[in-house]
Amino acid sequence: MNIFRLAGDMTHLISIVVLLLKIRTMKSCAGISLKTQELYVIVFVTRYLDLFTRYISLYNSVMKLVFLGTSIAIVWYMRYHKVVKQTYNKQEDTFRHYFLVLPCFVLALLIHHSSSVTEILWTFSIYLEAVAILPQLVLLQRSRIIDNLTGNYVFLLGAYRALYILNWAYRFLVEDNHRYHWIPWISGLVQTALYADFFYYYFKSWKNREKLQLPA
Question: What is the pLDDT of residues 154-176, one digit of tens each?
Answer without folding.
Answer: 999 999 988 988 887 887 788 76
